[in-house]
């Protein structure tokens, strides 16, 4: 029998459009001989809409922007319509959900928690790993506990900054110096990130980053190559080849990722076997530190001395066929449709393992 796969995409997030591109790519790559595809669209206002089963490929993103008449309701109120998993005899029941969501309200453990409550299998990381991987400050604290080498950083919440911005800027200058990078703590796709070379740029960067989050992180600039690696699995994760990001601008910003194509992706990265093993071991250690499952992309800086510093893990990395994560696995022998299928199987495997947990005493 075919697997009924629910694809959740869109989302109330600054990365809504990125998610739409991901959904289009996944839908058109799925083998309809193996999967029944059920699109579930979250509008930018947070309204959930489930469409009828797709019968074939979709031509463009606009076709995935579903509409509903009436007032928006919560997904829990639409439980019977969206996720009628409890009724095995229902032709509408979904076997497994693939959350194709990036950023807050999707990649941060929120939808994962909802699916856990509904006892529905889902692709990717669980609540803890998603939340920890989304918040860059918490993630770095977990990495420090796991004794993973990383760049120096400081962080602030909006309220503290507003009380004494000069003290915040002075701490950055004293602890990190220039240049440095300012980032929203809970966002991806390089949204709201700035590179700062002086106090004026730092103040502007703080203001911009706080537009996107109540918490921001400031990191020292590391001189090194940007190396990424893909990790998939549950209790026994495995790694892809490495790839190198070689931006033609000062850093790999949103436009470079999604609009300009003004970046070279070198796959596999030209690194030594010793450097590869170091990055691979650190990536698996980071995956386990956040209690990962399904997939992550782990990002590193590699210094000229051959030392790797972990920058971050992304628990729902860019997932079009032209994104780094699928390209890494394609180079490792796992083509895009096969990668999707493997991730679905990992989700079902993890869900089955969870069902062995006792809930009575």
Highlighted features:
globular; Rossmann fold; 361 residues; alpha+beta; single chain; Dna Ligase, domain 1; 12 helices; 3 domains
SSE topology sketch:
Elements: E1 3-10, H1 16-29, E2 35-42, E3 48-50, H2 79-82, E4 96-99, H3 110-117, H4 127-134, H5 136-145, E5 153-157, H6 158-163, H7 165-175, E6 180-184, E7 194-196, H8 199-210, E8 215-220, E9 225-233, E10 238-247, H9 254-258, E11 263-266, H10 273-289, E12 294-302, E13 308-314, H11 324-331, H12 336-354
Parallel strand pairs: 1-2, 1-4
Antiparallel strand pairs: 2-3, 5-8, 6-7, 6-8, 9-10, 9-12, 10-11, 12-13
Structural write-up:
The protein has 3 domains: 120 residues, Rossmann fold (3-Layer(aba) Sandwich); 144 residues, D-amino Acid Aminotransferase, Chain A, domain 1, CATH 3.30.470; 68 residues, ATP-grasp fold, A domain (Dna Ligase, domain 1). It is globular. The chain is built from 12 helices and 13 strands. It is α+β, with helices and mostly antiparallel strands and 361 residues long. The protein has a 5-stranded antiparallel β-sheet.
């Amino acid at each position: 029998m075919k697997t009924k796969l629910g694809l959740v995409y869109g989302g109330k997030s600054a990365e809504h459009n990125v998610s739409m591109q991901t959904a289009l790519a996944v839908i058109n790559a799925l083998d309809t001989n193996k999967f029944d595809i059920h699109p579930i669209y979250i509008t930018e206002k947070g309204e959930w809409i489930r469409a009828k089963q797709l019968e074939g490929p979709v031509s463009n993103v606009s076709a995935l922007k579903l509409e509903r008449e009436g007032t928006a309701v919560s997904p829990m109120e639409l439980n019977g319509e969206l996720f009628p998993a409890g009724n095995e005899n229902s032709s509408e029941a979904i076997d497994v959900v693939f959350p194709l969501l990036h950023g807050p309200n999707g990649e941060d453990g929120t939808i994962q928690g909802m699916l856990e409550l509904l006892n529905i299998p889902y692709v990717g990381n669980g609540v803890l790993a998603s939340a920890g991987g989304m918040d860059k400050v918490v993630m770095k604290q977990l990495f420090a506990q796991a004794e993973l080498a990383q760049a120096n950083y400081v962080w602030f919440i909006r309220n503290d900054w507003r009380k004494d911005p000069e003290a915040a800027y002075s701490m950055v200058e004293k602890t990190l110096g220039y240049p440095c990078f300012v980032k929203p703590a809970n966002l991806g796709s390089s949204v709201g990130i700035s590179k700062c070379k002086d106090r004026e740029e730092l103040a502007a960067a703080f203001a911009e980053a706080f537009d996107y989050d109540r918490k921001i992180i400031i990191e020292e600039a590391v001189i090194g190559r940007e190396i990424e690696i893909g990790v998939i699995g549950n209790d026994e994760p495995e790694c892809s080849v490495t790839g190198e990001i070689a931006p033609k601008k000062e850093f790999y910003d949103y436009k470079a990722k999604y609009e300009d194509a003004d970046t070279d992706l070198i796959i596999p990265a030209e690194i030594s076997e010793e450097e590869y093993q170091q990055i691979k071991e650190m990536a698996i250690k980071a995956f386990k530190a956040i209690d990962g499952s399904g997939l992550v992309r782990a990002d590193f800086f590699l210094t000229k001395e051959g030392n790797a510093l972990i920058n971050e893990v992304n628990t729902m990395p860019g997932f079009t066929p032209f994104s780094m994560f699928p390209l890494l696995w394609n180079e490792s022998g796992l083509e895009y449709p096969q990668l999707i299928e493997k991730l679905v199987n990992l989700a079902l495997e993890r869900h089955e393992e969870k069902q062995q947990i006792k809930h009575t005493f």
